[in-house]
Amino acid sequence: MIDPELKYCIQCNDEYRAEIEKCANCGIDLITGRQKIEMEEARQQKLGSRTAELSPDDDLVVIRRGPLSDMRHLAETLGRENIGTLMAGDESSCGKGCCPSVYNLLVKREDGMEAHHIIEEEHRRATGLTQHESVNGDTVFNPHENEAQCPACGYSFPTTQTTCPDCGLNFG
To answer: What is the pLDDT of residues 103-159, one digit of tens each?
Structure first.
């Protein structure tokens, strides 16, 4: 229940006393309980105006590609927000079951941006990471290079070490 006399963080939803101005976790300005109530009412109205039903005439766009289990999870997340989804197998997979199948997750074009924001929020919620914290996520430790960059924290260190001196991630 939202108390109109308190303040709230729009990013992490933490609740604060009325005199607090910034979120201790996120560092962003707080909103009043009244503002949060208005935002929730607007969200409910938008949610009620959406239809999760897809028709053959809908203009669909791909918003994510990945393994079936990941796409199912995202489809369920979007379904809770009344956004209809369609999963379609990628035609480039062999279809014989020997290759990892990749699926496309499709939504109506008009729901695309909202679906993208919902998926980003789900990623932040599930991982505790923000976009800038996952910048080094594709980094690979290569012991044949002179220097490595830690995919967890971004710290650069010589490959003679197999543990990141900054965060302790072990590559051994």
So the answer is: 889 999 888 888 988 898 888 777 766 544 545 555 666 778 888 887 777 788 888
Is the separation of the CB atoms in 159 and 171 below 8 Å? no
Q: Which domain holds residue 13?
A: 7-49
Q: pLDDT, tens digit, for every residue of 64-103?
A: 888 888 899 999 999 988 899 998 886 665 556 556 578 8
**One domain for residues 66 and 122:** yes
Residue 8 is predicted with a pLDDT of 94
What's the structural domain count of the chain?
3
**Burial grade of 93 (CB within 10 A; 0-12, 13-18, 19 or more):** middle
Taking only Cα atoms into account, the Rg of the chain, rounded to an integer number of angstroms, comes to 21
Q: What's the token pair of residue 66?
A: 């990945």
| Nearest-angstrom CA–CA distance, 50 and 137 | 34
Task: Mark whether 122 and 140 lie in a shared domain.
Answer: no
Backbone phi, then psi, for 38, in 5-degree steps?
-60, -40
**Under a CB-based contact definition with an 8 Å cutoff, are residues 11 and 36 in contact?**
no
Residue 166 tokens, joined: 């900054």
Burial of 15 (0-12, 13-18, 19+ CB in 10 A): middle
**Residue 46's pLDDT is what?**
79
